[in-house]
């Protein structure tokens, strides 16, 4: 039976800083719920499932792009910022969605793609006509080298040169992603003014915030060659050693100092609408440093997230290193953490936890215990594994380009399973745009709702519990050294001090417990560590949370 949202003793952020410590549920509209039987999810489908989202005890939703688009990159190539693509519905549908979400206590954030547009946007169609039209400098244009080669060696994230030749202007234009996604020129003041007006349009329609796609790509640097990278490593957005994008240090093509000035103007606009927020997606060689720089001082973005926890690395040593470095660098900034999204292999597969309830609950508590806000990607609460698709089923241009070394992002974008015994798992009456894997049907919402011990109900229970714990929502954090593959941290807020212990090993671990540590009586029963007689015992992949005296400074976990 559908559960209703838990509102008792709710201590989550209210008012203007609701975003601080908030849990944001990411919806990929194409794959969430199809209301009209065309095989593609839509805004009315999201409205139909708002009660389900509210029952998770999250604070907000984030809608991936639904704007008018030729869909070469499935909505991240926008041809009109101010309208809804007909496949998703209408502006009136969006307005109803905002109203219905707010009625359920859910904030609404939307994707804003600012660094580039579609090549079918009216701005680009005008810009490419000549070198002297009113929008001639709205995109990044450059002359070829004397031998006709591209201006620089910059690479596209999706493979090949980041420069595309245009015969109308006899110049190259920059595209950090697909050739059909030309980069806007944020060094042109009129472009900055125009983009801020696009943001204002949605603020006036009542949105509560923006997820800013590839926000550090907005401003390019000098047209100089990027230096080579000495060691080719995996990067963001599935950039792997088989993609030449990873062969360079990205010194000139993104993350330029001038971008900070744009972010300050954007923040000033958001501040005109109290209670709104922003979270920037950062893909950079030094992503943690950029996260800190972009969110510090209260005059740029409210928070940022990166791909540092969206890799294959699930060992507690790496996680501890990433989190402690972030805390050391972020100062008064604010991070946002995610373990999954629409660009990476699903968590259950990536961290080798498919079908393992104890592991999946461990990863959930790990994420929801960190200092910062959290994004949960649809299906994560069900433990969905990555969908295995054939080459013929792929639609993602990145997967098609780099097959078979990289299969693209389609495997994490398949439709949300609602009903195990229904055709296409209750997502649509028609054949969906991507198939619903058989392995997902048994994990459908209707099956997990009937099982008190399911992962879905674990998410509901822990998120309801988290709402009653100010230390987990807003508290400071301190990390203890990793021992025996156990990651320990403490969260403190006012007079409350909570200790969180996470066993990433498949062995039972026993260790001394800080004096006065007491299990929380109102915590979910599967927080299954035992605090007893000065000892903590954690089963394999076990989790424990205890309350300790605030004044105590116990260093026993630090050695």
UniProtKB/TrEMBL annotation:
Domain Glycosyl hydrolase family 13 catalytic: 26-413
Transport listed as a keyword: no
GO biological process: oligosaccharide catabolic process
Mitochondrion listed as a keyword: no
Keywords: Glycosidase, Hydrolase
Entry's Gene Ontology molecular function annotations: alpha-amylase activity
SUPFAM superfamilies reported for this sequence: (Trans)glycosidases (SSF51445), Glycosyl hydrolase domain (SSF51011)
Similarity section: Belongs to the glycosyl hydrolase 13 family.
Protein name (database record): Alpha-glucosidase
Lineage: Bacteria, Pseudomonadati, Pseudomonadota, Gammaproteobacteria, Oceanospirillales
């Amino acid at each position: 039976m559908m559960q209703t949202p838990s509102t008792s003793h709710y201590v989550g952020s209210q008012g203007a800083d609701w975003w601080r410590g908030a849990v944001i549920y990411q919806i990929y509209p194409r794959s969430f719920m199809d209301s009209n039987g065309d095989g593609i999810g839509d805004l009315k489908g999201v409205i139909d499932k708002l009660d389900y989202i509210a029952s998770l005890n999250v604070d907000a939703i984030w809608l991936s792009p639904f704007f008018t688009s030729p869909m070469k990159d499935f909505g991240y190539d926008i041809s009109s910022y101010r309208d809804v693509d007909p496949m998703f519905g209408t502006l009136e549908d969006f307005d109803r969605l905002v109203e219905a979400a707010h009625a359920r206590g859910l904030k609404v954030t939307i994707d804003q793609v600012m660094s580039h547009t579609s090549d079918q946007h009216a701005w680009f169609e005008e810009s490419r006509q000549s070198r002297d039209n009113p929008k001639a400098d709205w995109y990044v244009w450059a002359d070829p080298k004397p031998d006709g080669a591209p201006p620089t060696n910059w690479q596209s994230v999706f493979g090949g040169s980041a420069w595309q030749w245009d015969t109308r202007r006899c110049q190259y234009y920059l595209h950090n992603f697909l050739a059909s996604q030309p980069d806007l020129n944020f060094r042109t003041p009129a472009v900055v003014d125009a983009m801020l007006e696009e943001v204002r349009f949605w603020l006036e329609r009542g949105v509560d915030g923006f997820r800013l796609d590839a926000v550090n790509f907005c401003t390019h640097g000098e047209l100089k060659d990027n230096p080579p990278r000495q060691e080719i490593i995996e990067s963001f957005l599935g950039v792997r050693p088989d993609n030449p994008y990873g062969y360079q240090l990205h010194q000139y093509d993104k993350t330029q100092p001038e971008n900070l000035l744009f972010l300050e103007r954007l923040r000033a606009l958001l501040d005109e609408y109290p209670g709104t927020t922003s979270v920037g997606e950062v893909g950079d060689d030094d992503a943690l440093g950029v996260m800190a720089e972009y969110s510090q001082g209260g005059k740029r973005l409210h928070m940022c997230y990166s791909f540092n926890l969206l890799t294959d690395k699930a060992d507690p040593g790496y996680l501890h290193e990433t989190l402690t470095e972030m805390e050391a660098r972020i100062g008064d900034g604010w991070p946002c953490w995610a373990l999954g999204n629409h660009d990476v292999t699903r968590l259950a597969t990536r961290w080798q936890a498919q079908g393992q309830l104890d592991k999946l609950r461990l990863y959930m508590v790990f994420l929801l215990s960190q200092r910062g806000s959290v994004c949960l990607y649809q299906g994560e609460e069900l433990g969905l594994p990555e969908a295995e698709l054939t080459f013929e089923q792929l639609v993602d241009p990145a997967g098609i380009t780099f097959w078979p070394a990289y299969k693209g992002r389609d495997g994490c974008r398949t439709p949300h399973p609602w009903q195990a015994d229904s055709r296409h798992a209750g997502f649509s009456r028609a054949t969906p745009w991507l198939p619903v894997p058989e392995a997902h049907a048994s994990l459908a919402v209707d099956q997990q709702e009937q099982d008190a011990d399911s992962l879905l109900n674990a998410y509901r229970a822990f998120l309801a519990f988290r709402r009653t714990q100010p230390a987990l929502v807003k508290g400071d954090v301190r990390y203890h050294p990793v021992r025996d593959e156990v990651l320990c941290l403490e969260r403190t807020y006012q007079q409350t001090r909570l200790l969180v212990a996470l066993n990433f090993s498949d062995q039972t671990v026993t260790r001394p417990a800080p004096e006065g540590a007491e299990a929380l009586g109102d915590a979910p029963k599967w927080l299954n560590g035992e605090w007893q007689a000065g000892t903590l015992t954690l089963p394999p992949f076990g989790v424990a949370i205890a309350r300790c005296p605030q004044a105590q400074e116990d260093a026993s976990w630090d050695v």
